[in-house]
Description:
Blueprint: H1 3-22, E1 40-44, H2 49-59, E2 63-68, H3 72-81, E3 86-88, H4 91-98, E4 104-107, H5 114-123, E5 127-131, H6 138-151, E6 155-158, H7 165-176, E7 182-188, H8 213-217, H9 244-253, H10 255-261, E8 268-273, E9 287-293, E10 302-308, H11 315-318, H12 323-335, E11 342-347, E12 351-354, E13 363-365, H13 389-402, H14 412-429, E14 436-440, E15 445-446
Parallel strand pairs: 1-2, 1-4, 2-3, 4-5, 5-6, 7-10
Antiparallel strand pairs: 7-11, 8-9, 8-14, 9-10, 11-12, 12-13, 14-15
Helix pairs in contact: 5-6, 6-14, 7-10, 9-14
Amino acid sequence: MSSExxxxxxxxxxxxxxxxxxxxxxxxxxxxxxxxQSLSAACIGVGGKGGSDTSHIAExxxxxxxxxxxxxxxxxxxxxxxxxxxxxxxxREMLDSLGDKVDIxxxxxxxxxxxxxxxxxxxxxxxxxxxxxxxxxxxEARMMREVAEETGVITQMGxxxxxxxxxxxxxxxxxxxxxxxxxxxxxxxxxxxxxxxIGRPAGEDPIxxxxxxxAWIGPAPMRPFKKGVYHxxxxxxxxxxxxxxxxxxxxHTTNMPVMALKLWDPVAVTAVKNPGLFEGETFPASSxxxxxxxxxxGLPACRFYWYDGGELPxxxxxxxxxxxxxxxxxKQRNEGGRKTSGAVVVGSKGLLxxxxxxxxxxxxxxxxxxxxxxxxxxxxxxxxxxxxGDQRQKWEFVQTCKGEYGGTMSNFGYxxxxxxTILVGNLAIRSKEGSRIEWDAENLKSTNMPEVNQFVQREYxxxxxx
Length: 466
């Protein structure tokens, strides 16, 4: 290897560590020893979002050596795009079979399979791109962070808004003190857009011949197959498989304020409005939560309010937003119009408002107060690759794996903490409305409501392990 190639790799690794420290800590990075070395990947879940994840890393010159999907039809379709890739319906078999033939593993399955697949691959020294939320359970998120640090592999979670210049600039604006000290954050979502608040259907349907139902269930408790109920997009609302509206969207919508304000390790969370899990099966059709964060690294104590299923922040917040957006909210309230989503960061000198699910756009309010505002000095890197946010995040990941770029922003050191924070909220949804769960983040347990601690992790089904 030439001295110039060695120098590029060293600089890439050094910059990666620095970039990751900006956003919450990172593992030691073991990129490829040569920037010219070709990379190959095994892709777990290749339909829907997994389909684009597979194609996007291939666009970056990664050879697709293995495709895995429990649905034979999906697998066959993606196989036409990558005819040289071996096909599997069980990711355990694929990882065992391909072994040292791949450098990268993408994980784009339903939430409940993320940790089992990614941790197995990390322990095989594979770099990991894993969809959001990072995991199904709080304990799994902690383990993903720890294993990534232990193994030193390159990691990235699929909250593609992290790659947007607008999000990174908004983080810099908040950190600069432009809106003053922040003690309150309000975030609301237009999710769920899948069934929630329903019970388990009776009976069972024949399992399709081309569906590996056992592998789809994975580490979760086995249940009968029902056509159109779980397999497909609707799994997100089922508590055994998904993480509801909070888990689905908060890794996107809270990403910017969490990064800017270091909103991890809450000390308490309260279910302000909470119908609770329906028959213990699905998340409620709507909910609102309040997270409490203590003083942290010189930042004041802060409360973060979450709303989903049509719930909205109080009028005192809405009336400070742009008039055009207020009209959209009024239509939602009065005419059953399309649900809105947004994030409001409340500072002592003003507000930062983002109507974008990915934090890519922001406004400083009141507008007349910030007419002559100029963004602060840049402290976070900008991705030089010109493309959509999803593709830019893949570029950042692949180039870091090659040792040609300075690190992934949503590495598991950051994404694990973000996911832990978010999933504490689902403990509140499993409690009574108004219950304040006091949370010991270091030890991952509630100190005043021990009955919710059983949901911090769960026993895996036989044949599946971490």
